[in-house]
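---------- Forwarded message ----------

FYI, see the GTP cyclohydrolase 1 type 2 homolog record below. Original note from H. follows.
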Amino acid sequence: MQLEKLKIKLDELLNPNLAYDWDNVGLSIGDKTAHVNKVLITLEINEAVVDEAISKDVKLIISHHPLIFRPIKSITNFDDKGSILLKLIKNSIGVYVAHTNFDIIEGGLNDYISNLLSLNNINKLAYENSDIDAIGRYGELEEEMSVEEFISFIKTKLNLMNLRMVYGGNTRIRKVGLVTGSGIEYAKNAFEAGCDVYLTGDIKYHDAQDWLGRGMNIFDVGHYGSEIHFKENMLRILRNKLGEEIDFVVSDALKDPFRAV
């Protein structure tokens, strides 16, 4: 499929207009006349992912995190970002980004995690500018759990080796709120919705102190831990809608940069 046509189809599916103003989504690198028959899906792009795309003869990478986020004054191989961009361009590999718009859309990452946790009565957590522009979700577990049971549950469902907990004081968990990636600023929305627990990543020390003992447990499942599921989520959507025309594959190259030691 010609990239120009594929971009139109991706825009229709992923609605880049929903992205936050500070975000950079949609097609960021690409020759509109290029022919794309294989697409690689990844959480983000580093040199290992680019090398993987080259080895798999991929002509488009779909990434959750933008490769080009801040203005670029030059593209050279004197720095890592420039080297990656040059390698992509030299090998005629395009880049398409679905970031905050994919967090917001129906069936996107927050809905996918909610379904992994088998939540019922799912609602949108925090509205930004309209009734469709909503980040995060909250819902109810099938059965109430103790804190210890819930820890084991989310480790299994999200395939986590470890996590961090800010203990709010409640010992029984039924209603769960979540924002994938970095979303501690929406903890207040989960609290106001009556959630027993809130899941997100990248929680800072002072934010943790602010929520300690306030009646809602907060779990830091990690930025990578909550968003690596983007790959399977996006794969299912694209195979369902475009799988007869394009071969979609997920990246195996990207790894969690953190290790518990």
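H. also flagged this: The mean pLDDT is 96.
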